[in-house]
Structure formats: structure tokens, C-alpha cells
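TODO from last week: model Phenylacetic acid degradation protein.
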Amino acid sequence: MIYKFKGYTPVVHESSFVHPLAAVTGNVIIGKNCYIGPGAAIRGDWGQIILEDGVNVQENCTVHMFPGKSIVLKESAHVGHGAIIHGANLGRNCLIGMNSVIMDDAEIGDECIVGAMAFVKAETKIPRRSLVVGNPAKVVKEVSDDMISWKTAGTKLYQQLPADCHETLEAVEPLREVPKDLPKQEDFYKTLQDFRKNN
């Protein structure tokens, strides 16, 4: 659902996909090839939220802020299932792990990886290419070239997903039994360990 609020209508590039069960409200600008999953809430009711090209905000994520703030999720930022971005800015090609919480005025640098369930305190500044874990979150090491290559490859899957959804997603009634000719889905993703073995 897309909602106008106090005169602000969200802007969504036609190449991006916002799931019908997501809610995008107010002063939100979504660039090219972005994916917004079901249950996501992007609330630009109190300030502007910009998603640059290639950003994905996955299922059950929240993006919001305190009044008077504006935030940017830079190109190819990847926000995993259930994460909360509250008044924080995300750098280019970063990964925010599942169920992480990034608090107000935090700055996540370009190509950072924030581990699942991390809690990044308000006003924390995370340098570029940092691997961040824990509660409270701390930098544990630098992100390696192969880690960022793996992350980039995973984000490319989400940058293809909007086109796939526009082309094939449709609401249907469920089948009542499994078809005998049910095709096997393609195996096109590798874990970091498999990625390292093959590269």
C-alpha cells in the first residue's frame, strides 16, 4: 500500500517493486530496481526517506525516524528480514543483517556488514568496510574482498527480484495437492564458504 500523508506522495521508480502487503507512507523516494518486501513499513511521515538505486528492504523491516530528520539508504544497501532502521543512514553496498536494530543518527559506512541481531547505538559511526556484530554492536574486523563480493552477488539477486515480481507474481487460490510435475527450483545462491571455494 502506498499512502499520501500531509501532501507528500511517495515516489517509486517504475522498475522497483513494492509488495502489496508493504506500507510506504509520505515523503519517501525509491530509486531504480529496489525491492520492498511484504510486511515492510517505510514511514516518511515525519521526515524524508530516500532509497537510492538497487536498495532492498526485506520482509517485516521498519524504516522510520524522529521528527525533523531525513535519512538515506545509499545505492545497493541490503536490509535483511526484520531489521529496524530508525533515523540512521546506510552506506553504499552495505548489508544489515536480519533482526538488527540501527538507531538514530548512526552512520553505517560503505560496504559494511552488520551481523544478524546486532544493536547499533544512536550516533555510532561505523567506518567503511567494517564487520559489526553484537549488542551493543562493535567492529570486530575489516570486511574482506571476498566477503564484499559475496554480499554484492546476493544483493544482485534482490535487484533482479523486482523485474521477476512484475513479470510473474500474481495472487491465486492455493492448490489442494502437490502437482506430480512440480519443477525443482534453480540453485543459484552460494553460502560464503561455497563462494570462497569457487572463486
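Done. The longest strand covers residues 41-51.
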